[in-house]
Specification:
heterodimer; A: mainly alpha; Rna Polymerase Sigma Factor, Chain: A; about 70% helix; about 0% strand; elongated; B: alpha+beta; Alpha-Beta Plaits; four-stranded antiparallel sheet; two-stranded antiparallel sheet; 4 helices
Chain lengths: ~425, ~140
């Protein structure tokens, strides 16, 4: 096959694979099988296109071929069952789930969005572990290869391949229906989907300079999935909240690490390097979430906090009082000592270090948090501002002792030494 | 990666001839597809060059030249900013675009510079720095 044709097929596959798998899954009611049948269509393209040339509409060619494979499969299955019946096999063994819903095959374009949404909810089904959900989502919805997923997560390829195979088997065994959950179930299931997308984003965001390009590419994949979801489920405020959060966080990508790969703190970043286009998109997404009304969810609240930073043209223009109020709301929705710690930082910025220190001291008294290096770093910073250098130094040293990150440790020890000046 | 997709001008677009309803609808559907796929980041149409201006830079001198400009085929009549995985993907998306002017014209795709594109420029320098450090450490041990 010519190189150009191969690249074209690859690109078309990336764009179309999720839609094709979704459409086929609606017919065969099994996501694993649907992916295999879609892959068959890809193989057929590899065989036919070099001789016949690129079809006028490569996407439609792949879709039609995959659907035909699915219909063939169903016919064969029906034939097989009929034979079994003739042999006196138990007709109950047939199972209604394999009966093709031929009427579904007729309505083409309008159902594509629904198919994609069903595919998302199936890939992120709670019967699967979180890591299986992540791998399956990247495979089925983002169209990433096993190799790419493995590279992105710094794991051996067989590990990911096995994870995906097992996940598909689990879905089949549990007879997970290919559907969008309704009513009460929707909220919880949607939260699971959003968690997967945000996990993917954070995995990419945690990548350092110089690491494999597939890792930062995860941020783009997550953003794309989020943007697609926002179109598929436009009435869900938390989807827009998550998109807003990711857009605004991604806007800082170029500013958050120096040339040596060391992280730069938010307040010290060169805001000229923030991506204004992404900030603008984030603010629009946040407005959409707000316009839907209702109680603000954790993603929307976190996005609103990120937006306070995004709107401030310089660090000293940050609306810290607003950030404190948002952390108050977040702590109510999602109580956690880490949220409390962030709230304490905001209190320190808004109302001075003396107001924040007692909050941090209270947190430090609780067992899991007393081993959290950032708590001690925050405490040290407050003590330094309150001109208590001895205690500040001890706290910086304690933070350095607790971190696993070499670069962070060096930075903290440097700050410990600086308290004496 | 991001790409900028530039729709070049035609005599009609330069003359403010508006596209017909059919084309507008087709473009609307196409734009919707781009948004649904999470590809579209931004996009705008531009007014004819008659309403534009250029500034020529020559040393410290600045000269303003008012439109219209003559080289129609090289003028930009509209643009999109897309988020795609590769140039191949961008080309595939563009293949699906309705003919933007309904007549012969060109659309150009150009990748936006990414941080990685500068990567190689400073990597050897960093490596040299690291090597120097390693030598220093080795020297101190002796």
């Amino acid at each position: 096959m010519s190189h150009a044709l191969h690249r074209t097929l690859d690109a078309v596959w990336r764009i179309e694979s999720a839609r094709i798998i979704g459409a086929v899954a609606r017919l065969v009611r099994d996501v694993g099988l649907a992916e295999e049948l879609a892959q068959d269509a890809l193989v057929a393209a590899l065989e036919h296109w070099p001789a016949a040339g690129l079809p006028d509409n490569p996407a439609a060619w792949l879709m039609t071929t995959a659907r035909n494979r699915a219909l063939d499969h169903l016919r064969q299955q029906a034939l097989h069952l009929r034979k079994q019946e003739e042999l006196g096999a138990d007709a109950d063994a047939r199972g209604d789930h394999v009966v093709p819903d031929f009427s579904d095959a007729l309505d083409e374009r309008d159902t594509i969005g629904d198919d994609l949404l069903r595919l998302v909810f199936t890939a992120c089904h709670p019967v699967l572990s979180k890591e299986a959900q992540v791998a399956l989502t990247l495979r089925l919805l983002a169209g990433l290869s096993t190799t790419e997923i493995a590279r992105a997560f710094l794991l051996p390829e067989p590990t990911i391949a096995q994870r995906i195979v097992r996940a598909k088997r689990t879905l089949t065994a549990a007879r997970v229906p290919f559907e969008v959950p309704q009513g009460e179930a929707l909220k919880a299931r949607l939260a699971s989907v959003l968690e997967v997308v945000y996990l993917v984003f954070n995995e990419g965001y945690a990548a350092t300079a110089g690491s494999d390009w597939m890792r930062p590419a995860l941020c783009e994949e997550a953003l794309r999935l989020g943007r697609v979801l926002a179109q598929l489920a436009p009435d869900e405020a938390e989807v827009h909240g998550l998109v807003a959060l990711m857009e605004i966080q991604a806007s800082r990508t170029k500013a958050r690490i120096d040339k040596g790969g060391r992280p730069i703190l938010l307040l010290e970043q060169d805001r000229g390097r923030w991506d204004r286009l992404l900030i603008g998109r984030g603010l629009v997404a946040l407005e959409r979430a707000a316009a839907l009304g209702g109680e603000r969810g954790p993603y929307e609240l976190q996005a609103a906090i990120a937006a306070c930073h995004g709107r401030a043209l310089s660090a000293d223009q940050t609306d810290w009082a607003q950030i404190v109020a948002l952390y108050d709301a977040l702590a109510q929705r999602q109580p956690s000592p880490v949220v409390e710690l962030n709230r304490a930082v905001a209190v320190g910025m808004a109302f001075g270090p003396a107001a924040a220190l007692p909050l941090v001291d209270t947190l430090a008294a609780e067992p899991p948090m007393d081993r959290y290096h950032l708590l001690h770093a925050v405490r040290a910073d407050l003590l330094a501002k309150l001109e208590r250098p001895g205690e500040a130094r001890a706290a910086f040293e304690r933070a350095a002792e607790l971190t696993n990150n070499q670069r962070e440790r060096a930075l903290l020890l440097e700050r410990a030494r600086a308290t004496l000046n | 990666m991001r790409v900028m997709v530039m729709i070049k001008a035609t005599q009609d677009s330069e003359a403010s001839v508006m596209p017909d309803t059919e084309l507008l609808e087709a473009m609307g559907r196409y734009n919707e597809e781009l948004v649904k796929a999470g590809v579209m980041l931004a996009g705008e149409g531009l007014t004819p060059s008659a309403k534009g201006a250029r500034m020529r830079f020559s040393g410290a001198k600045r000269t303003v030249i008012d439109g219209p400009f003559t080289e129609t085929k090289e003028l930009v009549a509209g643009f999109w900013l897309w988020q795609v995985r590769s140039m191949d993907e961008a080309i595939e998306w563009l293949r699906r675009c309705p003919n933007p002017h309904g007549e012969d014209c060109e659309v150009e795709i150009r990748p936006v510079f990414e941080a990685e594109d500068f990567g190689e420029a400073f990597t050897p320098e960093l490596r040299a720095q690291e090597d120097r450090l390693r030598e220093e450490i080795a020297a101190k041990k002796h």
